[in-house]
Input
Amino acid sequence: MSASATRARPPDLAAGGEPFLFGLGGALLAGLFMILGVLALILWNGAATFWPRPIERVELRSGHTLAGEPIRSERFRPAGSAAESRRTLYRVGNYDLYGDEFRWVDEAEIGRRDRPGDLVLIERLEWGVFIGRLVGAETAGRALDPADAEAFAAVHAEARRRWRGMRALERDAIAEVNRRIERERLDLRRLELRHGAGSAIVRAAADAAESRLVHWRAEHGRLSERLERLRSEDARDTARVVESGGREVALKLSAIVRFYPANALGPLGAIRVYLSRWAEFLSEEPREANTEGGVWPAIFGTLAMTVLLSLLVAPLGVMTALYLREYARQGRAVAAVRIAVNNLAGVPSIVYGVFGLGFFAYLAGGTIDALGFAESLPNPTFGTGGLLWASLTLAMLTVPVVIVATEEALASVPRSMREGSLACGASQWQTIRRIVLPRAMPGILTGLILAMARGAGEVAPLMLTGVVKLAPELPIDASFPYLHLERSFMHLGFHIFDVGFQSRNSEAAKPMVFVAALVLILLVAALNALAILIRARLAARFRGGQF
Amino acid sequence: MAFEKTAAVLAAGAILATAGARAEALDPALAIYRPEPGIAGTVKSIGSDSLNNLMALWAEGFGRLHPGLRVEIEGKGSSTAPPALIAGTAHFGPMSRPMKGAELDLFEKRYGYRPATMRVAVDALALFVHKDNPLACLTLGQVDALFSKTRRGGAARAIARWSDLGLGGDFAAKPVSLYGRNSASGTYGYFKETALAGGDFKDSVKEQPGSSTVVQAVASDRYAIGYSGVGYRTADVRIVPLAARAGEPCFEPTPQTAYEGDYPLARLLYVYFNLVPNRPLDPARAAFVAYVYSRQGQEAVLKDGYYPITAEVAAEDLAAFGIRREP
Output
């Protein structure tokens, strides 16, 4: 038995010379508690949102029947009564029929309630969910028995496949033709601006453009006809559904995103619904003013902006720090610059946003538009918020972090190593390149990681410089010139704000806020993990190559 | 042209598929939108937060009919629309109140003409209370006495407690908790002009950043009252019927009471844009304008909880912009 194990810690910490141990440990505990609490709240609410709930059918004493997912219940005191009662909030869906998506039901009014197995929840492309019973279906003119679940699911899958084909046709082929026609118009307008309307050059160009336009219009007509054929096929696949009040509605099968018999769903079926909802959320475009569908454009926008920001901030910050630490004569001027840089890190981010809007978007962007994109004026191209301006603004916001971290890293390289290198005849740059930078690299990368994390979580300046509520087209796509720096984009942080505080139906939007927050946290964590991985690799490589 | 026919069929099919019970409120004379080929580019809108979701719904529907066209929506308040239009950073400026004289003047100083005004939807500003609040009716004078410290509506004294409005039970002893919008919002401006007769808000009104936030705040505060667009109603709040003057009947906000002016806080929602006189609009913007006034566009208005405009208003506005449309 060792001596340290036998010696008991004195009960009085002050007597042991550690009077603050509990205070220090307590501070850590409080911090951990808060962080874990937030994470647990988001994780719990975010992860549970997509789990399918059962549907209750409720018969009221008034004879009215409703069906919906019970969301939550609470105690309350009905008007004019002394006794407390309970009430439950049901998500009844069918917004197009009821004008309401949620309804409170007083327990005292309920006559009977059950969970019939034939109630289905149908997620639609428009108007939200439908809750009711499937009573019939039709495909290509022949009736289909909806009780035959397998056949019905197959027809539905086929309709969805056709729908996706139509979307692809629209988004790729027809969109490209439309863009060509628009480009012809803009090219002509540019010539008009340069040579004057009605000049010989413009007339010749107009004739040439007309012959091309005939081709594109014919192409458009051909594609439209193909689309029309698909649409008429599509219109023949329908399902008839009845809501709990007895009204019957016909739905196009292709407009049904997903359907499931909520009360007859085994655990396996529930998992399948859960996963398919996550897949939709992560990979699809938002629908219905961002309250449904997915957040893929927002995820992509956040990623693209963060990567672009890192590419911009890394060389700028590192080079500034190199000059300040290695070349500049240390004196009052440099000290003043250093203080300014440190202060820059404390400027509120919205100030950067205002600067970005005024300087980048209005001034720089406006000038670029006047010089290079005059044909689309008064429609701005660069003269409004966009990916480039947002990334530049955030690069400015985060550059102090990189400068400070890089300076610290450079300062930690021992003087003797520099002197050794210089004594061997290496120039200052060769010393920095071969000796100083490799040793400082982990510290520099740490600064970059901090900058990235700050940039990815920042929303306020982005709202002014290019993030919008809805911009379904990604800033990188297959259409020339592939990277569209002028486009506005969506951002997860702003998406959370928008869905949480601006959607029409805040009750339905609340769970989506948690899901989006969960995705944002995971995304930032993944980016950081990636950067840490790269740092570890780089550090290992430079360590090996030094001596 | 063969294309036009197919487009017409497409559009008609889309309408039939979505027509639900709510679609009955649509004016049947509203034209069905028929997309033309060759429209691409970007349409950008900056402005009202009340119209944010509606713009997004239009952007979705319009974007689907015109592949290759991007519609970008930004909405932080009606007051952000005029500067964006003047600076040329947006094509459309949705506003939940008409432009003020000063804003029109600034626009005119920059361009030499006034912006074109689209009347796109009808909104009823509703007073929301907690779902358990039994308040049966409010007159505009009472609303003024609740929200205003200057009381231009003529009330003798301010209403501070629920007992002042005749509520009993646990409400009687509680002060009224007030919620409203921030001053960049057109809803704030309209409410100040109409309900407060231009007077000042009480300092105790808690200003919220969004229309939906007002409703959420009222939902979680049992003794609260707040104003916001009728479309933002949830199951946790109740709308109080309003009367223009004491002794007059109270009206719930419905399309009928809003159209006929019975509901005292009904208003038009606007979208402004830069229309150079005697020059045709560029195709993308012209198409978007036509879409907003179409059946599909007005169906989105219903979906967002607002009330659609009539075909008459649509025809008047389109004629004013010089946009031709088949009946």
Remarks:
- The mean pLDDT of chain B is 84.
- The domain at 2-123+267-321 of chain B is CATH 3.40.190.10 (D-Maltodextrin-Binding Protein; domain 2).
- The CA atoms of residues 96 and 187 of chain B lie 6 Å apart.
- The radius of gyration of chain B is 21 Å.
